[in-house]
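re: that complex we talked abt at group meeting.

here r the seqs, copy pasted straight from the sheet so there may be weird spacing, ignore it
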Amino acid sequence: MQNNNIEYDLFTNLPNEILGHIVSFLPNESSLETILLSTRWRDLWNKAIVRYGTAEDIIAVLATFLTHFDVLDPLKHPRKLQFHFDEDTVVLATIANNGKLLIDFSPWKKVTQIQYELQFKLNKEHIIYLSFPSTFLVTTLYLKSVNYLTSDVASSIVSNMEHLEKLVIIECSGLQSLSIDSKSKLHSLTIIDNLQLKSLYLTTSKLKYFRFRGPLCWIWPEYHFNLSEAMLDFRLGPNCSNFKTTDFDATLLTIKNSEVLSLCEWTFEDLYMNQSQ
Amino acid sequence: MAKTPEPKRTISLKPCDGDVIEVSPMIAKQMQTIQSFIEDDSFIATTTIIPLPNVTAFQLSKIIDYLNYHSNSKAVADNVKESTKKFDEEFLKELEHDKLKELLHAANYLNVKEVLDFLCQAVADLIQDKSVKFVRKFFGVVNDYSVEEEEDIRRTHAWAFEGVEED
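got the structure back, here u go
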């Protein structure tokens, strides 16, 4: 069809700046959907800044990267940052709409699995650096594939994000103990597929939404707080053999008044019903 | 006393179809492409006709209309907002999708910021909240993703689309 050819030519001939210009007029929660149009659009969105440095530089590099990103004109500056540090280590930071940031530590080389712990203190008094920009406030953070080599860096990044409302922690192999301390903003926490996790300490009095998938671990909710939605998927069973049903009592107190509660069958029968009897 | 004839004050633009169109320097100035012609030393306003092989008479006159209206309304008070809005709406109403896209092209070729902004906004308004399929069709984008690539892009961006309504 000739008509189609003309149309095709018309838009393929438009320079990237014009496409970027059109995107800048789209509402920022949906503009990223243009990435699904074709490989050309994908390449526009996937441009990345590559930087090299040391682990100490990471906060400053990340801060500069976030400062340059223009929410209203998202194709103007890359929304991806690839930072190489400490020889073979790479971190990939990706910005998405509405204050979302993904920090992916997936190693490029195989890393020996050594157990480690993470401590996130999201309270103002703990902010050491004040270099994160106010132009792009990270309210949702996805943290992926942290390992023992990158745990310190991950902790210092997260602990600088005082505006964090939602935190998602995914596939951190070797993560044995996780403690999260946020007294003000954090209201949503998702912990998925951290297979070695044994202890989870929550000092998160404002938490409303809690989702967990992975083996059952010890959960210590420091204060009693009521969730409105809890989804606990312990399909993989307990993480250690000496887990007693009473070890789950504190968690039960926290989840049992949720408006929405999802549990898998064994958790419900063995832990929930047991306690209720 | 013989009067010297008024020097010619307009710029002559020749679209790829139709006759030469005269525009005021003030309008011509807003077209960066024309402006660079005018700034060229060999340009003589009285005789030179600027050929525009990529722009049709229809597109050119639409762009001139837009600029004329907006530069005039700027000079007046700010209670013209309503009528400007009405003008813009009418302006777009007369354009079918194809014409709108062609006009965007012409505005890009002539490099008229004001019209470009306006048209990009219009395109954004048209495609916003529309399905990927619709937008592809609108842009004439050929989906060159392989099935695996498209799945991959959806999977790796699932986190970014979380909380955004599906189309």
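couple things i noticed - Residues 208-277 of chain A form one domain. The two ends of chain A are 72 Å apart (CA to CA).
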